[in-house]
Amino acid sequence: MPDKKLRLGVLISGSGTNLQAIIDACAEQFLDAEVVVVVSDKEAAYGLERARKAHIAAVWVDRTAYTTFRDYNHAILFALRTHEVDLVVMAGYMRLLTREVLDAFPMRVVNIHPALLPSFPGASGIHDAFDHGVKITGVTVHFATDKFDEGPIIAQEAVPVLEGDTAESLEARIHEAEHRLYPAALQLIAEGRVSIEGRKARIIG
Ligand code: GAR
C-alpha cells in the first residue's frame, strides 16, 4: 500500500453528489485518498459549494473566457498541476478533455456513467435506458479517453429496472449505486490494483 495518499482532482458540472460521496469516503477512511481540488465549468455548480464546505480548493474555469477549447483545457490542466493531482476524477463533468490533459495523466483519468456501458452513453443515460425498456441497467466506472463515455471498464454495478419504476425512482437507485461504486473503484486504484491490458482494465488480487 503506498504511504502517500492519492491526490484527487475532481471535475464536475453539476450538483456533485458523487463528489460528496468521494469526500465522505475519504473522511471515513474507506478511501485512501484526498480531494485536493474541485474544478467546474459551471460557476453555479453546487459541487463547488460542497468543496468549499469541505475546505477543498474550488476552481471555476469559465469556458467563455477562452477563445479555443484547447486553451480552456490548458487552464484546467494548470489547475490540476497546481494542486499536484495524481488522479483526475470526472464526476458529472459533461465535457471531453483534450489530448493535452489526457496525455498529462496517462490512464489516470476516470469517469462515472449512469448506465452499463457500452449501452446508453451520453448525457441522459438513465432516461435513455428507461425509455428503451431495459430490465437491467446500472453504473460504470471507466478510464476516460477522448470520446464520451468510452475507455477500459474498471467496475460496473447492475441496477434492475423494477415493475412500477418511474425514471425518477430508477434514477434514485442508480445514484445510490454510483455513490457506492465510485469510492470503491477509486480505492482499487489507490491500492495499485488496476492495470491495463490492451483495451481492458484488469483488477489484480
Ligand atoms: C451522475 O449520474 C454521473 O454518472 C453522470 O452525471 C451525474 C452527475 O451527478 N455522468 C454522465 O452522465 C456522464 N456521461 P452528480 O453531479 O450529482 O454527481
Describe the structure.
Helix 1 (17-27) packs across helix 6 (167-190) and helix 5 (125-132) packs across helix 6 (167-190). The protein has one domain (6-203): 3-Layer(aba) Sandwich (Rossmann fold), CATH 3.40.50. It is built from 6 helices and 9 strands, in the order βαβαβαβαβαββαββ. It has helices at residues 17-27, 46-53, 69-82, 99-104, 125-132, 167-190, and strands at residues 6-12, 33-40, 57-60, 87-90, 109-113, 136-143, 153-160, 194-197, 200-203. It has 205 residues and is α/β, with parallel strands linked by helices. Helix 4 (99-104) links the parallel strand 4 (87-90) and strand 5.
Q: Could you give a short account of the major beta sheet?
A: 7 strands, mixed
Q: What percent of the residues sit in helical stretches (DSSP H or I)?
A: 25-40%
- Radius of gyration based on Cα positions: 16 Å
- How many distinct folded domains? 1
CATH architecture: 3-Layer(aba) Sandwich
Strand order, largest beta sheet:
3-2-1-4-5-6-7
- Morphology call: globular
For this structure, what is the CATH class?
Alpha Beta
Bound molecules: glycinamide ribonucleotide
At the fold tier of CATH, the topology name is Rossmann fold
Poorly predicted residue ranges: none
Quaternary structure annotation: single chain
Task: Please report the total strand number as a whole number.
Answer: 9
Strand composition percent:
25-35%
Q: CATH H-level name... which superfamily?
A: Formyl transferase, N-terminal domain
Give the helix/strand class.
alpha/beta
Provide mean pLDDT, rounded.
97
Question: Distance between termini?
Answer: 13 Å
Output the helix-strand order.
EHEHEHEHEHEEHEE
What is the helix tally? 6
